[in-house]
Amino acid sequence: MPGPMSRFFLGINTVEDVSFLKVSGTVDEDNTLAGSLKKIEGRTVVIDLSGVERINSCGVRDWVNWLNDLEAAGKQVVLVRCSPCIVTQINLVHNFTGRGLVKSFFAPYYCGKCDKEQLKLLQVEAFAGNTHARAPDCRADACQNVPCELQFDDIEESYFAFLPRSGGKVMDEKLPKLIDSLSPSIKDRIKRLDTVEQISGENSGGAPGSAQYSPLTVTSTSLSVNLGRQSIGGAMPPPTDLDRARTGGTFRGLMAAAAVLVVAIVAYVFFYLGGQ
Question: How far is CA 55 from CA 10, 225, 261, in A?
Fold first, then answer.
């Protein structure tokens, strides 16, 4: 049985003129997409969608409106690490990506011999020139079999339907030009983000998670904003080291104050008894 779905979470970090976003959990009516618009400062917006587990009709509506608002504000959106449920919506909703550029996505694979499911990160550019998209051969993690029996676990024609193949090209020419226009440090961040299949804290099945987000671990010159705590009725995300430090400091302060109060009471009692 699948576990319970996580609440919506949105993390934002702006470095130079690029805003890195991490969207995870369930995108439903309790999302905070609209409220994040003023926090997105970069002209280029790179959205990591690996942690999105589910999106309902309300979420789709809000997502499409949110992308339209970003584009109206002059933002160029790049979608990376799209989870299978996002790929499904891209194939079903014609304007789900707006004018955004899809750079990479996860695809489901299965090994019948090991009875294990795995998600593999695929780059859109790898399908360039293919009239009919075919799932690339992938090797299972820690597989010792020769040959590896990991196979694509969906219908290629439908799963890869979103890939544009006009003129034999599956990648919008604007994307490589956009990437090339960025600074070396930003290009390196995107490369590191977009080539790591598993993230610390993921489950053993290889599904992408949101425990760690490398672009959010940046220099002190960047801005990091966590909007997940504003979710309506949503569960609080795991506490950060800063949260723990603040909590620890508050607790220690209360204990010190309590100790001082106890000493004062004891001193008063002795003074009172001594005067009798």
Answer: 14, 23, 53
Exposed / middle / buried, residue 248 (Cβ in 10 Å: 0-12, 13-18, 19+): exposed
**Burial grade of 160 (CB within 10 A; 0-12, 13-18, 19 or more):** buried
Residue numbers of the chain with a pLDDT score lower than 70: 1-4, 164-172, 198-276
What is each CA distance from 75 to 42, 100, 103, in whole angstroms? 7, 9, 16
129-133: which pairs have CB atoms within 8 A and are 24 or more residues apart? 129/168, 129/169, 129/170, 130/165, 130/168, 130/170, 131/165, 131/168, 132/156, 132/157, 133/157, 133/160, 133/163, 133/165, 133/170
Write down the pTM of the prediction.
0.71
CATH 3.20.20.70 fits 9-238, yes or no: no
For the sheet containing 76-80, what is the strand order? 101-102, 76-80, 44-55, 18-27, 9-15, 223-226
pLDDT, one tens digit per residue, over 91-110 is 999 899 999 999 999 999 99
